[in-house]
Structures are given as structure tokens and as C-alpha cells.
Amino acid sequence: MTSPIKKSMVPAKSHWILPVLLLPLNALFFIPATILWLTDYRWEANHSLFLALGCILLLCGMGLALWTMYLFHTIGQGTAAPWDPPQRLVVAGPYRHVRNPMLTSVFIMQVGEALLFNSWAIFIFLVVFIGANMIYFPLVEEEKLETRFGDAYREYRQNVPRWIPRLQPWSEDKAAL
């Protein structure tokens, strides 16, 4: 019996290895690990509420990240990497609520890490990381998206917020009415 998932819907491993290693792993593993090492971090039993909340946020963020990467591959026909960007504008799933759900997933996981490790240093890194992205995305990334996708992106940008999700999912069909 064959699987209902088409082979083209499953991302090729080699297609995703480099973007995953270079982008989210830096923000979620290498930089926080370096911060913990530089601050001479020692694991101490954390409050169970912080541990539980940290684990829940990490899992939720990971689920959102996997979903957005899947949509970039299947609908956008690309990756989050600048050298292999999506060829089509992705306006499905979480992208109907917020323009940057992939980055939102990284923020969620970073909050989870800060809680899990009970680390103010990781929380400070999160604040700096969010601040840098709040500058980078409007000035650089959105310009590239507008150039690549034109009016479709401009309409999407007018209807879907950058960071704080809208409660009702946006639909291109509703916008045309």
C-alpha cells in the first residue's frame, strides 16, 4: 500500500540540512550554549512551573517551525535560506495570521530556553535578537519580498500583521470582495 503523501511534498534531506544548521540552530543552540558557557552557567533544579512552561514552549515553537518549513517547501518551493528562498508567496496556515511565523517560532523557543535554563543571559539575548529582527525585517527582508512578489505581497502586507497574529485568518478571497 502506498502512502498518500506525494514524494514532492516531503522535503529532501540535503535541501534542508544547510538552512537548518546555519539559521535556527545558531539562534537556538550554538549562541545560547556559548552564552551559558561564557556566564559559567551551572544547572540547578529549576522551579517545576518554569521547567514545564519552558518545555511546552520549546515543543510548541518546534511544531510551528516544522509547519512553516513544510509550507515553505510544499507551497513556496524553497527554504528560509536566503540562497534558496521560496519561489511562490506562502499565504497558508500560520501565514494567514502573521507574516513571520517562522521567526515567531524561534522567539517562542528562545523564551522556552530562557525558562528551562532559568537564564537571564539567554533572555537578554532573546531581547537583542528580537530587536535586531525588528530592524532587519522591515528594512531588508520586506523590500526583497515586495520586489520578488509585487502586488501580491503588498496586499498581503496590508492585511496580515508582521509580529502580532491576527485572530481571524486572512483570506485573499475576502480581500477581493
Fold and architecture overview:
Helix content is 64%, strand content 0%. It is an all-alpha fold and 177 residues long. It has a single domain, classed as Four Helix Bundle (Hemerythrin (Met), subunit A) (Up-down Bundle). α3 runs antiparallel to α4 (101-117), α4 runs antiparallel to α5 (120-149) and α5 (120-149) packs across α6. The termini are far apart.
Keyword list:
177 residues; mainly alpha; Four Helix Bundle (Hemerythrin (Met), subunit A); 7 helices; disordered N terminus
Mean pLDDT, rounded to whole units? 86
For the record, the CATH architecture stands as: Up-down Bundle
How widely separated are the two ends? 44 Å
Helix proportion:
55-70%
Radius of gyration from the alpha-carbon trace, in angstroms: 18 Å
State the order of secondary-structure elements, H for helix, E for strand: HHHHHHH
CATH fold description: Four Helix Bundle (Hemerythrin (Met), subunit A)
Q: Compute the number of structural domains.
A: 1
Give the DSSP E fraction (strand runs of 2 or more residues). under 5%
The stretches of 5 or more residues where confidence is low (pLDDT under 50) are: 1-11
